[in-house]
Amino acid sequence: MQTNMPDIADTAPALQTGKLDWVGMGEIELPFIFESRDLSPVTVNAKARAFVNLHKEDAKGIHMSRLFLALDLLSTEQQVNPQTIAQALDTFITSHEGLSDKAQIEFKFELPLRRKSLLSGKAGWKSYPVVLTSTIENNVISYELTVDVTYSSTCPCSAALARQLIQNAFNEKFNQETLSQKDVHEWLGTTQGIVATPHSQRSIANVKVKLDSNIQEFDVVTLINTLEAELKTPVQAAVKREDEQEFARLNGQNLMFCEDAARKIKALLEANNYSDYWLQINHYESLHAHDAVAIAVKGIKGGYKA
Ligand SMILES: Nc1nc2c(ncn2[C@@H]2O[C@H](COP(=O)(O)OP(=O)(O)OP(=O)(O)O)[C@@H](O)[C@H]2O)c(=O)[nH]1
């Protein structure tokens, strides 16, 4: 290796002096083995962002290769968990002595999970977008976990309007007739019996929670499972007809506006004692070409903002 290469990060004058909040790299390709409770260690293909602050006002720049190589170690020689992320953050700071006293790593990846069908006992893969952000400041680490949960939402307004049409059709059909249970039963099984159906839409809950700084392990599966259990109509992987019928029943029994979904999840996160959270509910409408959106935060001082 050539020994006299210029190292401008150390020696060149800054064009203009001043502190910077974050300097680093985005979109770093980083496969790694992710560890989380109730999950066999799983290889994920993450995109990483790695940052330190630059508090030395006249320093030309940070040493990006040092951040990159610390991440590479995480990818090739370790498994990703709170301990190894803490080590990488520590390396970010110690390798920037005099330059930086804050560091941040963000991982964005899809977590594949085996999901069971509703009734038929089959199973299939479903991928969940995850963002894990870890920050060290004043020697304290904080972790934020964001997951996206996709579900189906059936419009309560549309359901009520459809029911009215069904009642009207019933009146027309059976106006003068003595009702026979058999006739009504048969009629209900026809398209004319259920003359209107409410619209439903694919919907996504984006949920960000702040984790305790002293956690020993991540627990993404529990967060996803709890959210899906609360929403009741998560999109399905393996589906046989009996599963589809159960899904139709669940949709009919869990009609919701985006406000309903947001309130349910807010109450759930409160009950689970997260120190802070942010959520955005997106109903990708099938009635409209635009979306219905609801946002909520815990609302603590200095916490997440809506
Ligand atoms: N600070 C900084 N570096 C950049 C930027 N864009 C590219 N780089 C490159 O990042 C590379 C790595 O920088 P350093 O970490 O200082 O590399 P190095 O001097 O070989 O590593 P050390 O010997 O550990 O200091 C350099 O080749 C820079 O040119 C930028 O906008 N800012």
Automatic annotation (TrEMBL):
Keywords: Hydrolase. It catalyses: GTP + H2O = 7,8-dihydroneopterin 3'-triphosphate + formate + H(+). Pfam families: GCHY-1. InterPro entries: GTP_cyclohydrolase_FolE2, GTP_cyclohydrolase_FolE2/MptA. The record marks 155 as: May be catalytically important. Its EC number is 3.5.4.16. Pathway: Cofactor biosynthesis; 7,8-dihydroneopterin triphosphate biosynthesis; 7,8-dihydroneopterin triphosphate from GTP: step 1/1. It comes from the Bacteria. One of its GO terms (molecular function) is GTP cyclohydrolase I activity. Gene3D superfamilies: Urate Oxidase (3.10.270.10). Belongs to the GTP cyclohydrolase IV family. Converts GTP to 7,8-dihydroneopterin triphosphate. This is GTP cyclohydrolase FolE2. The lineage of its organism: Bacteria, Pseudomonadati, Pseudomonadota, Gammaproteobacteria, Alteromonadales.
